[in-house]
Amino acid sequence: MRMKLRILLGCFALAMGLRAADTPARALLVLEKAQNSLVIVDPEEMAIVARVPAGNDPHEVAVSDDGKIAYVSNYGGGATGYNTISVIDLVAQKPLPPIDLGELRGPHGLAFSGGKLYFSAESTNVAARYDPATHKIDWTKPTGQDRTHMVLVSKDRKTVFTSNVRSSSISIITQAAGRGSAEWTVTNVPVGHGSEGFDLTPDGKELWVANAQDGTISIIDVAARKVIDTIPSTKAANRLKITPNGKYVFVSDMSGPNLLVINAATHKEFTRIVLPASSEGLLVQPDSRRAYATLNTNDSVAVIDLSTMTMIDEIKTGKGPDGLAWAARR
Fold first, then answer.
1. Rounded distance, CA 51 to CA 48, Å?
2. What pLDDT sits at residue 129?
3. Which tens digit of pLDDT belongs to each residue from 262-279?
C-alpha cells in the first residue's frame, strides 16, 4: 500500500507539470529511453521527485563531481547516430543547452572525472573528452575498433578504457609518462564476443568484461594487458558492476529474470537474484548498501538490499528505463 500510494502521488504531481519535491542531496537518476526523459528519484522514499527532458534517444547518464549537473548521451546508433550530449541542471530540474559534438557521432558511454566528461562516439569509434569550463572537446583518441560503446576512466585519469562490441575487444588507452604529456597509446585486448558492460576493481588491477554473445566474463590483468581468466556469465549480459567494497560483481541479463552475483575473490557464482523481469542498466550505491537494476519491459527499477541479496522494492518509471547514475551533491 505504501509503495502504491507514493507512486500515485508522484505520478499525479508529475502529470500536472509540478515538481513533486526538491532534488535530494543523494539522488538516483534513471533514463526513460522510450520517453526521452530523465527522472530524479529520492532513494530513501523510493519515489520520483521530478522528470526532465533528456534529448533524443538517451542511453547513458553521468554526473558532475559536485552532483549538480547530469550529462546524457543522445545515441541514435547506426552508421551516423546523433551528435549531442544533453545537459541537465539537477537542482533546478531543467535542461540546459546541449553539447554539440560536431563530427563525433553516436555518443554512448559516459564518465565524469576530474572536472571533465569522457565519452565514447560509437559511430566514429573514438574515445573523447569534453571540458565544461571551456565548452570544448579537448581530447580525442581513435580506438581502431568497431562499435566503441562504453567508457571508464582510472582514478588517476591516466588510463581510459572502452569496450568495442563488434571487435570483441577492450581498448586500454594510456597516457605516456610525464606531467601533461599529449601522447596516448592504445592497446586492444581481445575478449569474448559482444563485449559491452565492464567495470574496474576498486584497486584498479582487474577489468571485468561481460561478453553478451558468449555468455562469459573476461577478467583482464590491467598491468599485463591480457585476459587472465574467463568465467561463465548470464545468457545475454548487458551491464556489469563491481561493488565499491570490491566484494561482489553484479551482471544483468536481458534474456531472463536472474541477476547474477559473483564473488570477486573466488571468481565463483555467489547467488542469483530473481527479479520480476529481465534486467539492463545496473548501479551500486557508493556505500555498497543497495544496488539498482532497470527492468525495461516492466517500466521499473528493482531495488536490491546487498545485506540480504534480495529485491526489497520496485520503483515504477515511465517507458523504457535503461541508464542509471548516482548524484551526490556537495
1. 8
2. 98
3. 999 999 999 999 999 999
Which uninterrupted H or E stretch holds 60? Answer: strand 58-63
Identify whether the C-beta of residue 57 lies closer than 8 Å to the C-beta of residue 82.
yes
Strand partners, 129: 118, 139
- Complete DSSP assignment for 166-228: TTTEEEEEEEPSSTT---EEEEEEE-STTEEEEEE-TTSSEEEEEETTTTEEEEEETTTTEEE
Residue 276 is predicted with a pLDDT of 97
| Assessment of whether the complete model's pTM goes beyond 0.85 | yes
pLDDT on residue 78:
79
The number of CA neighbours under 13 Å toward the Cβ of 5 is 3
Listing DSSP states for 104-136 in one string gives ---EEEEEEETTEEEEEEGGGTEEEEEETTTTE
Looking at residue 79, its pLDDT comes to 80
Q: How far is CA 162 from the centre of its chain?
A: 12
Nearest to 87 by CA among 120, 121, 110: 110
Query: What are the angstrom distances between the C-alpha of 46 and each of 28, 43, 59, 294, 326?
Result: 9, 5, 22, 14, 14
CB 254 within 8 A of CB 278: yes
| Burial grade of 86 (CB within 10 A; 0-12, 13-18, 19 or more) | buried
Q: What is the pLDDT of residues 169-203, one digit of tens each?
A: 999 999 998 766 689 999 999 999 999 999 999 99
Do residues 265 and 308 lie in contact, with contact meaning Cβ atoms separated by under 8 Å? no
Across the beta sheet with 47-53, the strand order is 47-53, 37-42, 26-32, 321-328
168: left (phi over 0), alpha (psi -120 to 50) or beta: left
